[in-house]
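RECORD TYPE: inverse folding
INPUT: structure tokens
STRUCTURE:
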């Protein structure tokens, strides 16, 4: 029973990531939040100390990405992916998104299909609808 629960958790996490709202609840190094990456986590520049930091620290007071800060912390390809993440006009809470669903919302039906097929659709389908 324990193995089945752990396998289910691992399958669920393969497709789960945070959709950024205000960035308050998402740790840039520990939480999955960058779409189109295998584990949804970015890589830092080589040799950079990875201090605990929240996504909100990468967002300027005007509600846009702090481009200079993002480029200084992350590898170029990761920085470009982060800078392409749409931020809401009005800050909202960060929330979980589930990649296999076109809506981004979890369903047991899609979880069952994903667990048996081990396939996840492209993140771009979700991002277009959000």
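DESIGNED SEQUENCE:
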């Amino acid at each position: 029973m324990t193995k089945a629960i752990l396998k289910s958790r691992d399958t669920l996490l393969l497709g789960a990531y945070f959709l950024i709202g205000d960035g308050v609840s998402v740790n840039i190094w520990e939480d999955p939040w960058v779409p189109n990456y295998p584990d949804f986590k970015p890589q830092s520049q080589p040799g950079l100390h990875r201090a605990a930091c929240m996504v909100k620290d990468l967002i300027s007071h005007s509600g846009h990405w702090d481009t200079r800060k993002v480029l200084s912390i992350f590898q170029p390809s990761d920085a470009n992916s982060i800078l392409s993440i749409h931020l809401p006009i009005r800050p909202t809470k960060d929330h979980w998104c589930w990649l296999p669903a076109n809506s981004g919302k979890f369903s047991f039906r899609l979880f069952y299909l994903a667990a048996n097929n081990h396939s996840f659709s492209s993140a771009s389908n979700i991002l277009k609808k959000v």
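NOTES: The longest strand covers residues 16-19.
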